[in-house]
Amino acid sequence: MITPEKFLNKHYIKNLTLLRALAAFFVITTHSLRASEVKYSNLDEAGYFLPINLLDLGTFGVCLFFALSGCTLFISNHSKVNKMQDVAFFYFKRFMRIWPTFIVSLVIYLLFIEIFRGFYTADKNYWIARFLNEYNLNDVIKYIFLVFNITGPRDLFNGPYWSLPIEFQYYLILPFAMLLIKLKPLKYITPILISGLLYYIFSSELIKFDRNDFFKMGYMFFGGVLMSLIYMKLKIKIASHFFFLSIIILTLIAGTIQNNLLIIPKQIPFISDPLNVLGLLALILVAFALFCDESKKDFILLRMLHQYGEVSYSVYLFHMLFVGLSVILVLHININNYILKFLFVYILTLIFSYYFSILSYKLFELPSMRFAQKITDKHHRKVN
């Protein structure tokens, strides 16, 4: 498979792709748990099983996606944004990277919602029933233009959409950060200042959006930028097994926080918010991915993880289709045992979202990226 990194970027780092797969797995695990933990009928078991719930890390997965995005975008684009004229071409590439496939997914979800409405027979207050939230044309327009985190409404069409406008708004800031970073006195302080400013706006409620995650989580994205700056400066590498060890340890820590097994003292500024701890853990994990050698071993699980990471954007967009379909099947074939219900939803979603995402990648993502690359290459040739 041709990946966006391999096709468009000489700075391809396999460890970062593996982390994208891990983030996607965490998101799918959390959504499979939310879909499985309730009683759809009187015979159903409502469940909690600690070994599974330790992987209830969807929020951590999103933190990872933000940190990875800041890191990879800076590494691959810092040399291409040198003056104000380059900013528009950066925007164009990022727009083509996320928007066309997002629009395709929105159309598919609008159709799927009607299918779900016809076959879902359980409690309309359950988490999965957000597919049934009412919307109008004005709401669709807000989602199309990726402004719904500012204007609302939230939780329409596909729950994971919430992070897309936030990420796109970070893209709007990033090229200006790149230009400031080229000024030697501001090189390392720029991402720190931007992170601090965004978090100050959040904590002081200076500006209020419908969802203020854009301000609160900005340090994750620009922390990823800072990690990439440090990586490019130091160029050190440590043994690959430290990367895999860090995944195990940091995932376990995140899982204990999510399950309230590790209680964070409330009086510690910034750290007392569990989301901030997850954000810092995500940045540490990205640092390990950068500074650890890539594994030279070639075994099937690692290959599968890399492949999953390569199509992780489509996985993120489309996996809820298969969570929703799985719930419909659970209702109609009467799977009542909690563990069986979870495994059914989880395995079906993992498998079908992967193959569907390969198709989405080939049909929508890659052509959009090729078109954007063709336009920007033409610009750079003219400049040079």
Describe the structure using short key phrases.
mainly alpha, 384 residues, disordered N terminus
Topology:
Blueprint (H helix, E strand, L loop, with lengths): L3 H5 L5 H23 L13 H4 L4 H20 L7 H35 L17 H8 L3 H4 L11 H19 L7 H16 L8 H4 L1 H17 L6 H18 L15 H18 L8 H11 L1 H22 L4 H46 L1
Helix pairs in contact: 2-4, 2-14, 2-15, 2-16, 4-8, 4-11, 4-13, 5-8, 5-15, 5-16, 9-11, 11-13, 12-13, 15-16
Written overview of the protein:
The chain is mainly α. The protein has one domain (4-383). Helix content is 70%, strand content 0%. It is built from 16 helices and no strands. It has helices spanning 4-8, 14-36, 50-53, 58-77, 85-119, 137-144, 148-151, 163-181, 189-204, 213-216, 218-234, 241-258, 274-291, 300-310, 312-333, 338-383. Helix 2 (14-36) packs antiparallel against helix 16 and helix 5 (85-119) packs antiparallel against helix 16 (338-383). The longest helix is centred in the C-terminal third of the chain and has 46 residues, at 338-383. The chain is globular. It starts with a helix and ends with a helix.
